[in-house]
Amino acid sequence: MADYFMRILSELRNQFASLWIVGGVFNVVRCISERSRCLGSKKGSREFDNFIHNCKLIDLPMVGKKFTWYGPDNKKSRLGRFLLEEFWLIQIKDIQQLGLKRSISDHFPILLADIEIDWNPRPFKFISMDG
């Protein structure tokens, strides 16, 4: 199913090549660090990573949560995500992928948002070392 979905998306990407944002649950991880206590397909991960690369899409890091799915026995994976073109990073400087709180689902919702982080000015402290 994932192979079929990625193939269809790749074909659509070739036909309609501008301004893409794709979001959803892909049911595959890109690398081993995107799962914990569960098995995954290395081949599936490689194919998914190739799909992202070939379609020239960017997978933003998650803010707030590392995983988007939690299962029994503390199993966790990052199955949901947004993929977007570089254009959006240029147009929307502070675009982020945020993991939100879940309710009854075993999946966490993800928000793609333009959120500027206010780092607040840090006070400058001068420490005299003159003795």
UniProtKB/TrEMBL annotation:
<dbReference type="InterPro" id="IPR036691">
    <property type="entry name" value="Endo/exonu/phosph_ase_sf"/>
</dbReference>
<protein>
    <recommendedName>
        <fullName>Endonuclease/exonuclease/phosphatase domain-containing protein</fullName>
    </recommendedName>
</protein>
